[in-house]
Amino acid sequence: MRIASLLLSLAAACLCLYPLLWMFLSSFKTNREIFQPTNFFPSIFDWSAYRSLLTGEFLPFQKYLINSLLLSSGQAILATSSSLAAGFALAKFRFPGRSVLVGLAILLILIPKQTMVVPTFEWLDRLNLIGSRWSLLLPGAVSGLGVLFFLQIFRNLPNEWMDQARIEGLSPLRAFFLVVPLAMPGVVGFGVLHFVLSWQDHLLPLVVLDDENITLPLALTKLRDASFRIPEAVGMAAACLSLLPVLVLFGLCIGNMKTALREVVQS
Amino acid sequence: MFWLIPMMLGIEISLQDPVFRPSMAGDTGNNFGTSYVGTENFKRVANDPKFWKSLENSLFYVIGSILIILPLSFFLAMNLKEIHRVPRGLLVFCLLVPGLALPGVLSTLFYLFFHGRNGILNQFLVIPLGMEPINWMMDPKFIMPSLILQSVWRWTGMITLFFLCGLEAVPKWQIETARLEGAGAWMRISWVWIPCIRHLGVFAAVFLAVDGFASFSGAYVLLGGSGGMLDSGLLLVTYLYQVAFPGGGGRFDFPAAAAMSLIAFPFAAALSYALLWIRSSASSSK
Q1: With an 8 Å Cβ cutoff, is A85 touching chain B?
Q2: How many A-B residue pairs are in contact by the CB < 8 A criterion?
Q3: What residues contact B266, with CB distance under 8 A and at least 6 apart?
Q4: Does B105 have pLDDT greater than 80?
């Protein structure tokens, strides 16, 4: 039983990883080798694709990478802090309109923001933000999922603590800062998740950013668009580099994420 | 009330984006003028066969990927649960990797894999089985399946992780009791394991549904911004983009696009709502 399970999961993992490994190895191949997808290993390991990418031979790739990192982490930090505060308020205080706000958060999850590009675009245009980085940061700073996530986490903390805090004369804000460390796994987990989601977002950056500060998904498409001149290996190298930050981040935080998930799941 | 401000601000901004704007844009005759044309735009969209086609495609995509991913992840999670902790963590991480990559990258890889006769799938699977090599990207019948396959590849790991956490949270005594009562493996799965993670399954389904309706990058890169052959791979958001922005058809038809998203999101919301409803009715009948 155990062995069978192990073998099955191993097979699934291989299936998942195989194309990505192929991608990594392909960043060393020549064009001709790449279009023969059945052969797996390159004939020689040639790092020139990475070199030309990082020296900016075709595109200022480094700039895009840094830009992407900045934008995604900005969105992650903003969204985490806003939904942390919102989740805390919704979980621990009763006030009129509370259920309406929870309903709004659910609505935000149910209506994907991608179907709302057009109104978002117009709205940002009215604010004169189109093209700047803020046009990506502001819509990314809100997350209905995050509000519900933290709502659930804070709900697990005993209410008596809040009563105690009130009796001790702490302001709600003080109490908030005292409670936050207890939600730390959740904070890290959600932050990473949001980082990954905004890292992957394609449509909104495509629509609102100008050519100066595009993000990685767009840069990758560009690399492929002009693929008549650019060797495929460079595209593959770029893809590998774009995977690297999320991979590292996720590898570091996966324990945290599992703790947070378990906390949310159990209730 | 100080702690309320960030939340208010957050919900305020987000609200103004999706809900207020389309009602204005949808009624505006041209982009910057203020001549209101009533429901004209909606009628135009409702008469657009491509819109219905894209909606249908999106529905197919969402339902197809949910139906494949959920059982598959459940199966994987059940298997993973049996494995010792250390290799389990490693395996879960391996499963997660495709979910972390950019969807565009996945599409590029998929393109190479499906491409023509030489693609991996044709070479390793279809031809050895004695079938005609399938032209995955060009044959209208196979475009949607390959999109769904891509979504399966991308999300299975994530959902498996969800389920695994859920399964680990199931108290041991329940399983022991079931075993003592003489329940076989199948009985244990259908009466203990599945009910215990049903709420997670619903959540995962909603998540996948929303993501499916919103998916853009994968299809955009895979099919080069078009709908593919005979529009058989045209997803809702791709079409929205084509209508509104110059990258696609160059129609710059903002009002129509806004009207489209207004028509479309009740469908998305209804689907997700239906899933939630199934859940609540199931738990109340318990």
Answers
A1: yes
A2: 259
A3: none
A4: no
Please check whether residue A83 is in contact with residue A149, taking contact to mean a CB–CB distance below 8 angstroms: yes
In angstroms, what is the C-alpha Rg of chain B?
23
When pLDDT is averaged across residues B99-114 and rounded to a whole number, the result is 72
% of residues, chain B, pLDDT over 90: 0
- For the question of an ipTM over 0.85, the answer is no
Alpha-carbon distance of A23 to A244, in angstroms, equals: 13
The listed CATH number (3.20.20.70, 1.10.1040.10, 1.10.3720.10, 3.40.50.970) that belongs to domain A60-266: 1.10.3720.10
CA A39 to each of CA A23, A238, A254, B128, B150: distance values in angstroms, whole numbers, following the listed order: 12, 21, 33, 17, 22
**Which B residues in the span 72-111 are in contact with A, Cβ-Cβ below 8 Å?**
76, 79-80, 82-83, 87, 89, 91-106, 108-110
Q: Is the pLDDT score of B225 beyond 60?
A: no
Q: What is the CATH number of domain B36-101+144-279?
A: 1.10.3720.10
**Angle, CA of A174, A180 and A182, to the nearest 5°:** 130
What residues 235-254 of chain A have any CB closer than 8 A to a CB of chain B?
235, 239, 242-243, 246-247, 250-251, 254
Q: Which of residues 116-145 of A touch B (CB under 8 A)?
A: 116-123, 138-139, 141-142, 144
Helices (H) and strands (E) in chain B, counts: 15, 0
> Closest Cα partner for A242 from A98, A59, A119, A115?
A59
The pLDDT value given to residue B279: 58
- Domain residue ranges of chain A, discontinuous segments joined by +: 1-46, 60-266
Q: CB-based contacts of A49: which residues, under 8 Å, 6+ apart?
A: A27, A28, A231, A233, A234, A236, A237
